Amino acid sequence: MLLKEAIKKLESTKEFKDFLKEGSDCYLAHAFTMLDNDKSDWQIGYYNKDHDRVVIFEVGDDSLIRHPEDELFKKTNKAVKKLDMSKVNIDLEKALNIAEDLRKEKYSSEIVNKKIIIIQNIETQMYNLTLVTHTFNIINIKIDASSGDIISESRQSILGLRKE
Questions:
Q1: How confident is the model over 37-59, as pLDDT tens digits?
Q2: Secondary structure (DSSP) of 62-98
Q3: What proportion of the chain, given as a percentage, has pLDDT over 90?
Q4: Given the DSSP bridges, would you call strands 112-121 and 64-66 parallel, antiparallel or unpaired?
Q5: pLDDT tens-digit map of 115-127
Q6: Domain ranges in the chain?
Q7: What is the enclosing helix (H) or strand (E) of 21?
Q8: What kind of fold does domain 87-161 have according to CATH?
């Protein structure tokens, strides 16, 4: 399911409208999906400024699950920036094609097993793609969701991520 379709589907539901009536100052903050066998349910996060927490809605073709409000994984005390979907000109398929072209060019020996995708607003609206490979490496590619430009890319071993 395309992200914009998932958001539209979510925002038209009674559950989402009831969520908005709860009175908190919430806005779209991120969307997450993990591509595995072309299945792409979305976890769509709305940041609650009043509580400095996030509410996640899991949107599938035939399902909608609202998860309880939860703490954020963030490094600073700054508020989470709003994800402005009107500035997202590159769809996920295009972002994945950009990432695949980069993988072929720089990491051609790597075979991707899993794709983890987050779209969020950090410096700009961006796709943050993590490609997990069969050799236990991760390739991280950040792509500007407006222009399609690659913001950054790196590769590292998953094994090197563990803490001593």
A1: 656 789 999 998 888 889 999 99
A2: S-EEEPPPB----SSSSPPPP--GGG--S-HHHHHHH
A3: 70
A4: unpaired
A5: 999 999 998 999 9
A6: 3-83, 87-161
A7: helix 14-21
A8: Nuclear Transport Factor 2; Chain: A, (3.10.450)
